[in-house]
Amino acid sequence: LVGGFIRLYCYRRLRTLFTFELSIRRDHHLIKTGIYSVVRHRSYTGAFLAAIGVALCHLTPGAWVTECSGLPPGVVVPIWIVGLSIACAGLDARMCKEDRMLRDRFRTEWDAWAARVRYKIFFGVY
């Protein structure tokens, strides 16, 4: 639930600046306050936490996937880890592209913000 609430907060905070396809709008401006003063890509933090929540719900003993899917024990979790690893690699590439686009548009403003907010997803980690 926490991941979902973080994503919802980000959608509401960014308003019309939020898009699923990377884009810079004519009226674009950097959001540097609130949750964005701590980590640059907080929406992806929410997505990652939501994925962990889904795993905890669906990959634990007693869950449908582990009990009724017909997959051998010990196979489901590694499959999920591989899928999450692929998704994380894609998100990392997307974050780098998003950072480049914002830097190209806002230059010194983005540089100053990125120097203050060094972490992309998790404060103190990455």
Helix proportion: 55-70%
Shape call = elongated
Q: Helix-strand pattern, N to C?
A: HHHHH
Number of strands: 0
Strand count, sense and barrel status of the largest sheet are:
none
Which structural class should the secondary elements be placed in?
mainly alpha
Q: Strand content of the residues, in percent?
A: under 5%
Q: What is the residue-averaged pLDDT?
A: 88
Overall tally of structural domains: 1
Specify Rg, calculated over alpha carbons.
17 Å
Distance between the termini: 22 Å
Please count the helical segments: 5
- Unreliable stretches (pLDDT < 50, length at least 5) are none
Describe the structure.
The protein is mainly alpha-helical. It has one domain. The chain has five helices and no strands. The protein has helices at residues 2-14, 42-58, 64-68, 76-106, 108-116. The longest helix is centred in the last third of the chain and has 31 residues, at 76-106. It is elongated and about 55 Å long. It starts with a helix and ends in a 10-residue tail after the last helix. The model has no long low-confidence stretch (mean pLDDT 88).
